[in-house]
Amino acid sequence: MSIKGRKPTKKEAEHMDKVSQLGCIVCRNMGLGITPAEIHHIEGKTKADSHFKVLPLCFGHHREGGRFRPFISRHPYKRRFEDAYGREAELLEQVNKLLDED
After folding, report:
1. Could you report the per-residue pLDDT of 56-69, keeping only the tens digit for each?
2. How far apart are alpha carbons 77 and 12 in whole angstroms?
3. Other C-beta atoms within 10 Å of 46: how many?
4. What is the rounded average pLDDT for all residues in the chain?
5. Where exactly are the structural domains of the chain?
6. Per CATH, the architecture of 10-101 is what?
């Protein structure tokens, strides 16, 4: 089984590694500290800049499938996730600001 998408360049892979090291952005915003994070692509993996539009999310907030706080999962509950934690574009801005501070 293959995942659709374009293989990241070295620069993109380095960016995604830095993002994941921030820990889950939702857990961070909830005051839970830095929790291990997976990479979530907010616009899929096929667009030219898709590997730079990524969020660090823990398993619970990314794809565990939870429907209720404190771990509403982005997959498959995008609307519920954004209603609870903020729009993905806003979270991306926050992630980029944190990276700039490093």
Report:
1. 999 999 999 999 98
2. 27
3. 10
4. 93
5. 10-101
6. 2-Layer Sandwich (3.30)
